[in-house]
Amino acid sequence: MKNFKQTTLAVSVVMAVSGTVYANDHFANAIELIGMPVSSDVRSNVNATAEVGEPFQHDPVNSIWWYWTAPSNSFVTVDTCGSETDFDTFLSVFTGTTLDTLMVVTQNDDGCALQSRVNFNAIEGTTYYFAVDGYSNHVGATAINLYTDVDTDNDGDSIDDSIDNCPFTVNADQTDSDDDGIGDACEPPTNDNFAEAIELIGMPASSDVRSNVDATAEVGEPFQNDPVNSIWWSWTAPSNSVVTVDTCGNESNFDTVLSVFTGTTLNSLTVVAQNDDACASLRSRVSFNAIEGTTYYFSVDGYSNRVGATAIHINTGTPVNTPTPCLLYGIQDSNSNDGQFLNDSQFFTVNYETREIYPLGYLQLDEDIETLAIHPQTDQIFASAGIKAGVRSKQPGNLYAVDSMTGNLTEIGNMGFGPVMSMAFGNEGTLYGWADEQGLITINIDTAESELILESDLSVGDITFDEQGNLYSAVGSDLMVYNGQTLIKTCHLPTGGRIEALEMLPDGILLIGVQNRPGVRQLEAIDVETCEIVLGVGIPSEYNEIRGLAWPRNACRDR
């Protein structure tokens, strides 16, 4: 199981005044750095904002900017590793003259502890832009440092990295046919960019072997895996059919992430399917319904910056049945510093045995997903949309099916009760929900049609069933149980905040998520008999606006 970074790094607010936006918040106001070596003064990204068209760095973007013109050809190191930096940074290097024409040179998250370090070949006279973003909305003080490592030879070709035109690839002859300062041995792949996708024809079809070594991310490129080092192919479906695409052959020698898109331009692509490890040796496989005449784009990225050789294979056949894995699923309200993104939502998964946490798919913009539930027999995931007064939302009260591998939403219909803030399946397979300040409803999972069975003006954070069929709910910090006629309070939980997520685990432990509890970001475990926190069982988490939790009972039945 791959480890999505977990950290309890404290966030310091340095040099920050509430509401202040700092001078280098925007690309156009980047602060110039001159010479080599050079270090910036200390700056803060507290209250920094994303610009329209700003390249992806880390969601949500709260970046600050510098720029520097290379005084000579050299191998440059840039970092935020000094003691001035007191938060988890994400460092990016770009070239270009305007925000919408920037090209990624390199990116890094944790090159030095939780701070960042990158290396690249700087070309004399070229201007480079440096953006420091916070990992997962972290903020604080930082400074960047530029320098050249002397007497370093990473690739062992006896050429010092400070003058090597391919410092990570052996090329003692330093051949540079196009005289662009990058040696032929480390030029980006020919299908590095979307516009240079290699066409595949027919069915079945296989590509030749390609490499993503030295592949780069493009501005506007859809998220695949961080950082992006993808290569591209295109294929037009010759007929309507179920298609399987994979990197499962022996040609692939690294951990791939495979994505399928439709669209005509990079910034208009729509995800059809994505997968990381569907087949052996950490390779990828997806299945989808192909429509005759539609052009599909296939991107192969490396998981967590991995690189190597790969080939893709297209075959027709029945979809690969990838069952919902035995993971705890959750939904997080994305939350920016100014609160303007409170109804963007991020699915995530938790390996309950290892405590590893993973984001699942893309940030769901404007959906305001408030809860999720998993069918006890089929393990199909369902989610519902809520709404908050004064902020945008697409479809309050909509019911969705959720893809367990990608987090993609498929709309089923509207439940007719406005925002449905919590859902849970009974053991027999009936889906129950709580319509905010209206009451308990039952929901048809095929049509989304719903029926009110208990009228109530309570605002319930979440509901869950235990193995005996008892329905528990959270109202504020109170744990309630439904007796068939009304909700009865069983106890007040010592959580220090409003409970927004409940899930009864197979061992009878109640897992809860508490909204915005100061200083604590974790899922707490509760003994429902004593209503006390079970020490040592809670799960540390980056997420502190968890709105729903669900456990696939069928997939986890033997665990």
Give the CATH topology of the largest domain: Neuraminidase
Q: Could you report the average pLDDT, rounded to the nearest whole number?
A: 81
Q: N- to C-terminal separation? A: 16 Å
Structural Rg: 25 Å
Number of helices: 0
SSE-based structural type: mainly beta
Low-confidence stretches: 1-21, 336-341, 388-394
Q: Give the count of structural domains.
A: 3
CATH architecture of the largest domain: 6 Propeller
Full CATH superfamily name of the largest domain:
Kelch-type beta propeller
Q: Just give the CATH class of the largest domain.
A: Mainly Beta
Rough shape?
globular
Measured by DSSP, the beta-strand proportion falls in: 35-45%
Overall description:
With 559 residues, the protein is mostly beta strands. It folds into three domains: 27-147, Sandwich (Jelly Rolls); 194-316, Jelly Rolls (Sandwich); 328-550, Neuraminidase. It is 0% helix and 39% strand. A five-stranded mixed sheet has the order 1-4-9-6-7, with no helix packed on it. A five-stranded mixed sheet has the order 12-15-20-17-18, with no helix packed on it. Strands 38, 39, 40, 41 and 42 form a five-stranded antiparallel sheet that branches. A hairpin with a 4-residue loop joins strand 40 (522-527) and strand 41. It is globular, with a radius of gyration of 25 Å.
Summary of the model, kept short:
The protein is mainly β and 559 residues long. The chain is built from no helices and 43 strands.
